[in-house]
Amino acid sequence: MSKTITIDGKTIPFEDGQTIMDAAMAAGVYIPHLCHQPEFTPHGSCKLCTVKVNGRNCSACTYPAMDGQDVLNETEELIEDRKRITQMLFVEGNHFCPSCEKTGNCQLQAVAYHLNMLDNHFPLFYPDREVDASHPEVMIDHNRCIFCTLCVRASHEKDGKDVFAISGRGIHKHLIVNAESGLLKDTDVAATDHAAHICPTGAILIKRTGYQVPIGQRIYDHQQIDQVSLATEHPKHGE
Amino acid sequence: MRQFIRGIAENNHYQATHLLQILRQIQSRYHYIPEPAIEQLSELLSIPRPQIISVIEFYSFFHLIPRGQYELLISDSITDHMLGKKSLLDYLANKLGVAVGEVREDGVVSLDNTSCTGMCDQGPAGLVNGYALTRLDHSTIDKIAALINQQKPLDEWPNELFQVDDNIYKSGLLLDQQIEQGAALKSAFKRGLKETLKEIDYSGLRGRGGAGFKTAIKWQFCSEEQQSVRYVVCNADEGEPGTFKDRVLLNSYADQVFEGMTVCAAIIGAKQGFLYLRGEYLHLQDKLQSILDQRRQNGLLGNNILGAGLDFDIEICLGAGAYICGEESALIESLEGKAGIPRNRPPYPVTQGYLGKPTVVNNVETFLAAAGIAVNGGDWFANIGTEKSKGTKILSISGDCAHPGIYEYPFGTTIQTILNDCGADDVLGVQVGGPSGTFISNQEFDRKLAFEDLATGGSFIIFNSSRNILDMVHNFTHFFAHESCGFCTPCRVGTSLLQKQIDKIVEGHGSAGDVVALEELCQLVKNYSHCGLGQTAANPILTTLERYPDLYQDRLKEISYEPGFDLDGALETARRMANRDDAGAHLAQTQMESEHE
To answer: Hey, which residues does A167 pair with through a beta bridge?
Structure first.
């Protein structure tokens, strides 16, 4: 007998060592997420993937699947609260979708659409953040960083470098790079690094590629993020 | 500098886990962490540079830009404020000629606020280069300012500035008598380690940090892990504002605390233990170190303890100003030389703790009690207290009372009894368990100290009827926003939003929907945060909103929407540019104001 959990009443099999997120994605169930990518060590920080496991809130991307768990995913309450958490991510940074070259390819924007976010709800923080355009090919717009650490993990785990880290505490958290000058141009980052392509928002961009695909023909212009996520991030994808 | 840093690194065996201890020494010598030091440490310890910077920027006591040769920090606990901290801080800033948050131009002194330093029974308090200052008043401040202006070395400062008293006013089961050095270990070996664990189980001892997990079960889980290496960690990072009992236990009962740790090591099979001491208790370090040395000399630490074949030693590690490190998995991260960010759980520390090995983390008071139980047996402890909360609890009492200090009570004692003992009258309410705990009003003083009623790690702050509850809420809410580690969205952004929303209401810019919005935000932060900090950060608001809804409502303006800022104030720049200040260049903020005009 294989082990199973239920998500919103649907029975889903899992293997030992899988998280609730792994099991859900393998079964074609989408749980919203931003800091998670199946190929990297789960982080559990954005909290968008919060699900109710036997009545308790847990991050699906880090919480192990265990036989008989009763998981709630698409309840009205969870959807509403995930929208609020997404709104928090919008107000703490400076996110202006219409003027951002990532629009249409941005996971933060796509999750917001998916959760039917129509306003910021909270007061905007308008933080003073910089743009690092020093590198010839890769740039950082700190205004859009959501501290998911995907670039940190990708650089360390995939590229075998440690170009990025998240520094600071609390609301003063910020992305830093590995150079005495603090500038991207003095790091060993390359445009071919996984870390340069993993950003779910428009914080890390490859220069001169932003408008190669016109607005209107971009990833989330035609599909919702749940479809895209299940099609591209399935744990077995690429095997 | 290169030689200095190489020397420290060598003394720390080039261990990356010792990064915090190394950075503490560099900060202490240079009053910041210079860039070349980071570069050199990165090579010597094989830690990527950004990781070192992220550690420096995480802890309040480390700085990337120079602080003064005298780094002055003044405690920002609510109790310090109740003792007139604000005017003292202004006086100090004036005397020294330095603004709060700044370094004086000559680089001699810097001045800033810091979270509660654990001296609420003898505040207003502060720190100078990490060393505790107590009972600050105008005359001590005059002295301090003079000493700094003469650039007198700290060891030539008068002792009374640094005097820290125990202030034990009521002792019970634990504080009445200390066990003799070695007595708990001798009893444990004589009785048998399994039987000793049974006694601890029978005693009903639960974790004294506040969460109340059963100690014997934690030790048993850890001992059952299939691993050869295990660790014992004593959590002496008591950062909850209003708590200072661990300071007293480590000052006067440290031998028994170390003994409790050693008994734990014998039971779970650990060879290494750590005392994680909050940076604010630097003044205790030398004393604790000499007690450890003495225990080594007496065969109670080291190899083959008491000839019973137990090898165990204890190392003291200091924190560097981060409340979050009181959370056990954040504490372990900090012990490993990293930023104190709470881990995802499971796995729990008993399974994968320090360096991924099974680890018991217990509070100072828990180890103290465990040593007592090892000597006196489970009954001794279990006969006192309530059915679900056995034994006694040591409280740190501060605020509006005649005798702030340490009080030990059997669980089940009523709040009224405690208030009578410490000389508190005209009481408005009590914050039990610190900012993360509960505020109770004067209608609830028949409630009891117990895990099943009012659980507390020990903080007990009394407010009399002259106090303003919203001032307290404001202070606590700012504290959590300052101490949030920033890992998860709901706490990182949520605690800052709570701060903004409370400021808006307290400053009188709130309107009808704002209390509802505040409550909604509280629930969000509470229900979705990663760890205990975020899950309790809204408690000061929620527990007072429940008891005093009018207090919040009365601050609101009688219009349905109020901008979160001063509209007229925002026009100041425009008025200056236009060189106008007539009535037409001003905006009436609200309907009420315009009616008055």
So the answer is: A174
